[in-house]
Amino acid sequence: MRRILIVILVIFSVWKVQGQDPQFSQFYSNPLYLGPSFSGAVEGSRISTSLRDQWTELATPFRVYSISYDHYFSTFNSGVGILAYKDVAGTSQLGSFNLGLMYSYNFQIFHTYHLRPGISFFYLEHGFYGDLLFMDEIVQQGGGTTGAALPARDRAYNIDAGASALFYSKKFWLGSSVDHLFTPDISLYEVEATLPVKYSVYGGYEFRRKGQLLKPSDETMTFAFMFKKQAEVAQLDLGVYWHNYPLVLGIWYRGIPFVNSRRGDAVVFLAGLKTRSFNIGYSYDLTISNLIGAVRSSHEISITTKFLLPKRSKKGSVPCPEF
Q1: What gap in Å lies between CA 257 and CA 186, rounded to an integer?
Q2: Has residue 262 been placed in a domain?
Q3: Among 178, 168, 232, which Cα is nearest to 20's?
């Protein structure tokens, strides 16, 4: 009976969230997914990869892969990036593939403050990446034909766009992103089903421990937040990072309750290593929502490799955490 309930829960969840974006716990380790303003926000070039397994207790967990590359052209005060990510869920591998190009421009204000607007354009496809299996076929033990309404096509293809702005200095940052400006249709049936516009606001502040005159401290404490809204779903996350070279530890509370919400979504624990040219992080999501009876945990791994310029250039760097 418990397995049947889990299957029903997964089926309901897939159809319920098909019009929403995948979610990362380490969103700052996937900066181009967060917003195009982060393209080129490094002293040179970088490659970022992420892998997320959500609700690993299920036979086929929700899985998201992403990879991105970006570079800062200091001569033109511009950043350029490319991002690809794919998410799949369920035994039929319902999911999407997205490939985007991004651009940002860095305005220097009052010597220490920067404003970085950005824009992105995406090619996307949505559909089934596995074989369809309906409930009546399961009852027939895989034999016979299904009486369910089959989709008109296996994949839906479209284009999309996004925009963002990022304001920052050496110790703080504040940004906002708007995704799915074209509200692309991802329906596999004749009925229209569009991706709703997603709004995000994020920011934080870094506190550095005082060191000696000739020996500055490498220990920092960073407080951060993330608010996002897509259709009727709104979510506020709060987190804190502790960094003492090269170790990074962090904790997030995801899903600060709003009206009509009893509890949040998850508590996220993070550990990683951060150097000037290489980062690796692992996070564990402990579910605290009403789904805790069926699913309890999610895992995410991120790796970032930076190819920095021999001479440090602070024009492109942003002080936000990288996990």
Answers
A1: 29
A2: yes
A3: 232
The CATH number of the domain holding residue 274 is 2.40.160.40
For residue 313, being part of any structural domain is answered with no
- Alpha carbon dihedral 50, 56, 61, 66, in 10-degree steps, equals 0
In a domain, 323, yes or no: no
Give whole-number Cα distances, 114 to 126, 166, 204, 226, in Å.
37, 8, 15, 20
Q: How far apart are the C-alpha atoms of 257 and 268, rounded to whole Å?
A: 16
pLDDT tens digits, 32-67: 999 999 999 988 899 999 999 987 767 677 889 999
* DSSP string over 105-134: E-EEETTTEEEEEEEEEEEEEEEESS----
Phi, psi (5° rounding) for residue 7? -60, -45
Residue 144 belongs to a domain:
no
Residue 198 CA to residue 174 CA, distance in Å, equals: 17
pTM summary value: 0.84
Paired tokens of 99: 């490939």
